[in-house]
Amino acid sequence: MLECRGQAPRRDFSFAIAATTIGRRAGSFGERSNGGFSKRSLTAPYSDNNGLVGVNPVARSFAIACCVAALAAMSLVSMSAVSRAAAPADLDGVWLPDVGDQKRQEQGNVPPWKPDILSQVQHMTAEEKAGRPFLVLSHCLPHGMPSWMLIMHNAFEILTTPGRITMLGEVDGNRMRRIYMDGRAPPEDPDPTLHGYSIGHWDGETLVIDTTAIAPQAYIATSEAVGIPNNGDMHIIERVHLVKPNVLYDDMEITAPKVFTTTWKTTRIYRRYPERHYEITEGECAQEDLTAGKDQFGNDIFVPNTQNPDGSVRAVK
Description:
The protein is α+β, with helices and mostly antiparallel strands and 317 residues long. It has five helices and 17 strands.
């Protein structure tokens, strides 16, 4: 019988043994002799026209297929083991922000604004109370960091794959964070983005995320009506960890020298409800300014929504 020596579990190669057995039963490959076929086993030596002895070609094909399968199985087992070892905490799934705690943080843990920045924040707060809120989230731009983690009200999903953890935000397709876990260094000449460039590693069961290369236009927001652009050179360290199986804490240290007097430490809480089977949904910010309509040919399209005098698209009562 053909053997394929490897370290993978025996059950992974039952197909190879079966194939050899089938070959042996059907395995009559030879020349017609005395009105029948002379039987030659797949494993019998094979002699060509030059008298050279080798392995039967069919048997050799089985052996190659068996060994390739062994290597593939060993590779998959190895990758699975690495993936499990690299993710000591199960963060995968859909998470909902604790909006009530966001409000408590907004009132009880104020960022260390510089004096000239604080006056801007106080003006925004007054405008919001007067019914004229500043729109931190405008032009359908991403929340950006750290505002996404600070003030989001929608669910987001965490996906762990080899070498990367991805955060996908609900509603807008541009709410996405890539956290590289493959040991790479930060880019020497990065292109700043609103979410920045994030590199992570595990410290025990805590995911440590280091984010740099954040665009200066990215807001540091304490609510959807109060926020200031970081103005450059911002650096964020996050320590993401489970305090209960379905309660996630994100401990953030935000250094923003252009707007803060010192590093701001704050925590945001998220909850997972596996029994409810939540999923994030599709949507686009721009759709708020559009409504269903028809073109001149009767095709279904979006058309601009009627705006109120203040620029909103809410129905006027």
